[in-house]
Amino acid sequence: MIAVLKPDATREQIDNLTTWFEKRGLNVQLSVGQLSTVIGLIGDTSQIDVDLLEGLDIIESVKRITEPYKSANRKFHPDDTVVDIGGIKIGGGNFQLIAGPCSVESKDQIIGIAQSVKQSGATLLRGGAFKPRTSPYDFQGLKAEGIEFLLEAKELTGMPIVTEIMNTNHLPMFEHVDVIQVGARNMQNFEMLRELGKTDKPVLLKRGLANTLTELLMSAEYIMAGGNKNVILCERGVRTFETQTRNTLDLSAVPILRELTHLPIVIDPSHATGIARVVKPMAMAAAAAGADGIMIEVHNDPVNALCDGAQSLTPEQFEDVAGMVRKIREVVTA
């Protein structure tokens, strides 16, 4: 249930109403927006008399929420959430480019790529230290050493780093990581999501390859219910009957999610298509659709990459894509 307050509601009136709700065992979430203030109620609201609430002087309107996700629901939080990543903001009109290799292979590799993508306009550095692979015989990442190399690249370039977690036991190694990525395979690893909810680090939550948008939002709800509100959603393609691309990029997710949630939305065209030459048009389309960010895989030597070379752009190709994305952003935000 949500209660929209009148603009002239005083702080004392809001505090009294909040206390009244809490005495009835409800979790109260207060969202103060530019145009209105909303009180969101989570719990058994069947005991609340809607007519009684609407009769109060400070109440503009009351609405029961049927969607199972509450914290991630735009009805509870009308204004866009802005996630601050070491001074880099995403959401609420703030757009960011996230770039880097699928996997960290060496210190020189990640530092070189970090310097090149930053020069081309990337603001966050991605790189896999732990790699979930379909085959147990494929390269699994450098693990702790990979995180050390990412941190060295961060120190040299000033770029916050984004890397994927595979196990909650690894959380101590992520102490200095700026954004923890939850991959598609772990989107419904609810124990992991609960643990991430106890942290205050931004979490980039990728949509599972066979999951609905509602299921994605419910996974975000697990993190937010634990107290961590810094969640960024990522559309990375879903598995369909089409075989010409690795997955099918669902760009309709951007406007639909924009209606359903206040959380920032990032598009990953690299994993969605699996084909380097298709990344550019899909990145441009994502920018036109209104995404808050785009995450692109970049490798200095894609042919010899240890992971996902076929979908990785060279630094020169990334510079071209970044330039086109900026032009499209200028049009859609004009």
Question: Can you offer a commentary on this structure?
Answer:
The chain has 334 residues and is an alpha/beta fold. Helix content is 33%, strand content 18%. The protein has helices spanning 11-22, 50-54, 107-119, 144-157, 190-197, 213-225, 253-260, 269-273, 276-289, 315-332; strands at residues 2-5, 27-32, 37-42, 59-63, 83-85, 88-90, 96-100, 124-126, 161-164, 179-182, 203-206, 231-235, 265-267, 293-297. Helix 6 links the parallel strand 11 (203-206) and strand 12 (231-235).
Which keywords apply here?
elongated, eight-stranded parallel barrel, four-stranded antiparallel β-sheet, 14 strands, 33% helix, 334 residues, alpha/beta, 10 helices
Short summary of the structure?
By secondary structure, the protein is α/β, with parallel strands linked by helices. It has ten helices and 14 strands. Helices cover about 35% and strands about 20% of the residues.
Question: Tally of extended strands?
Answer: 14
What kind of sheet is the major sheet?
8 strands, parallel, barrel
Mean pLDDT: 93
Please bin the fraction of helical residues.
25-40%
Note the run of SSEs as H and E.
EHEEHEEEEHEHEEHEHEHEHHEH
Strand residue content: 15-25%
Cα shape: elongated
Radius of gyration: 21 Å
- Helical element count? 10
**Class per helix and strand makeup:** alpha/beta
* First-residue to last-residue Cα separation: 36 Å
Low-confidence stretches: none
Q: How is the largest sheet built, in terms of strand order?
A: 7-8-9-10-11-12-13-14
